[in-house]
Amino acid sequence: MRPDALFLLSFAFFTGFCESAHRERGRPLQRLSQIRSKRASRMSGGRGHSPVSPVLKRGSDMTKLPVTNTEQLLKIDGHDFTMRPGFGGPAIPVGVDVQVESLDKISEVDMDFTMTLYLRHYWKDERLSFPSNRNQSMTFDSRLAKKIWVPDMFFVHSKRSFTHDTTTDNVMLRVFPDGKVLYSLRVTVTAMCSMDLSRFPLDTQTCSLEIESYAYTDDDLMLYWKKGNDSLQTDERISVSQFLIQKFHTSTKLAFYSSTGWYNRLYITFTLRRHIFFFLLQTYFPATLMVMLSWVSFWIDRRAVPARVPLGITTVLTMSTIITGVNASMPRVSYIKAVDIYLWVSFVFVFLSVIEYAAVNYLSTVQERKERKLQERLPCTCGLTHPNQMMMSNSYSDMDVNTTGNYGMAEDVHSTGKYRMPNGGNGVQRERILVQLALRGDEAARHTGSSGAYSSVWIDTHTIDKYSRVIFPGAYTLFNIVYWSLYL
């Protein structure tokens, strides 16, 4: 065989082998592409083969385009927003309006109130102007508000305040093409309210929320109510448990600080009138009932010590409990409140009813002692039909009240010298005769002084109870008339 023929045969064999090997290596690649195409068709619901992945179809982020970049549109990077608008020129006017959402709490102990409101600011910053074909505003949240100039408002005399942040910061910033800005935020503030409790609980309180710029004086910032009295809006459903909200109104004043100057200050003033019905049920009615209960002792027999003494002590302790309960929920002021006057006068009436029984009991004891001394001076009762009835009794009957006061001086004894037993001969009249007999032995010696001795012995202690039944209710009724006419 010729050498050239052998070379051609070897070259042909080698070429065929390489092609077969290439075909064998290409088959797995072809099967993998087929598997991927089938998987894509299954994911698309069998609606045909999608040559491009959905991930690759995602468009570009429009917020990253130069035309819609907010900071570039508003030229935030090109200005120094640490300076107020129009720095070096006249004061920038900042209008304010407020919408009161709720009046949460009013505390007499801490002398403050808590209010939730929407605070809105209006001003114009030409640095934020932007071109717009349709004159539409752009609205942003608190993230952009931190990059531009906003008024530095604060609440004067506030104790606590915060901006709501659920579910995000309750802050809204709206910018108009001409540079006008609306800045709104939802705030809850607890501020001081100086209350005059001298008429409590029949009082009317006036509280105010004061808004002021912290850094800018009236030369740099002019603060004003945007719509006058209409700048304050309230929800009709606002209510407080113990108060009736009578009115809201706005005002503007200048505040002076010796070290910094004059500042514009806005006032939100509201008037509250306290509901009296709660205190009538909890304080006034129980106190009045305790006073009336103490009068019951005037109709109880003066000999019933176990009945009258506990009644008086119970009413005194109950009044003390009522006074303590009222003062526990009140601030420790240095002046007397209207409720204090009522409660302490009621307490005095209850206390006097106890003193009244003490006086009755004491005078009764004194009378009994004097009667015993007269009994020892009595002559012999021999010959009397009922000597036991002639002894002086230490007890008292219901007739004492009506009959004892009717006895006068021993006129019949001195004028006639006879001792006449009255018809029916009751025990009270016999006691009087025995006293006259005891005094007759000394009648000749001191005739002129017998009347004085007789008068000092007869002390009608029942008269005190009888007069107390009229004087105590009458005096307390008069006190109530004067009290309610002054404070209502």
Describe the protein.
The protein contains eleven helices and twelve strands. The protein is an alpha+beta fold and 488 residues long. Helix 4 runs antiparallel to helix 5, helix 4 runs parallel beside helix 6 and helix 6 (338-376) packs antiparallel against helix 11 (462-487). It is rod-shaped and about 165 Å long.
Question: What secondary-structure arrangement, pairings included, does this model have?
Answer:
Layout (H helix, E strand, L loop, with lengths): L2 H41 L26 H4 L18 E16 L4 E13 L13 E3 L1 H4 L7 E4 L1 E6 L7 E5 L4 E13 L11 E10 L7 E5 L6 E3 L8 E15 L3 E14 L2 H18 L10 H24 L9 H39 L22 H5 L7 H6 L10 H14 L9 H8 L4 H26 L1
Parallel strand pairs: 1-9, 1-10
Antiparallel strand pairs: 1-2, 2-7, 3-6, 4-8, 5-7, 6-7, 8-12, 11-12
Helix pairs in contact: 4-5, 4-6, 5-6, 6-11
Search tags:
single chain, 488 residues, alpha+beta, eight-stranded mixed β-sheet, four-stranded antiparallel β-sheet, 39% helix, rod-shaped
